[in-house]
Design a protein that fits this description.
Layout lengths: L1 H59 L2 H9 L2 H14 L5 H7 L1
Helix pairs in contact: 2-3
Length: 100
């Protein structure tokens, strides 16, 4: 009888751990992993846009771009547009979705 009195609380304790605590711990781990992944993705996207901004500023301040804007002729603007597309092949509309 004394053994039964000791085993019942132990069995109830294990039942609690298996049914209540373990799913809560699993949920917490999943939340932490997903939060970490989201944080890393946000940092990567921020770095991608910062790098793109630097490249755009450099290209916009190039002598070719400045002279095309100053002249404002269609031929020069088309030339700078093609130059920009050549300078940023990884950011064309078709490739931008794959980059993000």
């Amino acid at each position: 009888m004394a053994l039964l009195v000791l085993l019942v609380p132990v069995a109830l304790g294990f039942t609690y751990l298996i049914s209540v605590r373990e799913p809560a711990v699993e949920y917490t781990v999943i939340e932490r992993v997903s939060q970490s992944y989201a944080t890393h993705q946000a940092a990567n996207i921020q770095q991608l846009f910062a790098h793109l901004g630097e490249r755009l500023r450099g290209a916009a301040l190039s002598p070719l771009a400045l002279s095309a804007v100053a002249k404002a002729s269609n031929a020069d603007v088309e030339l700078i547009e093609q130059t920009m597309l050549d300078y940023f092949p990884d950011y064309t509309p078709a490739n931008l979705d794959a980059t993000l």
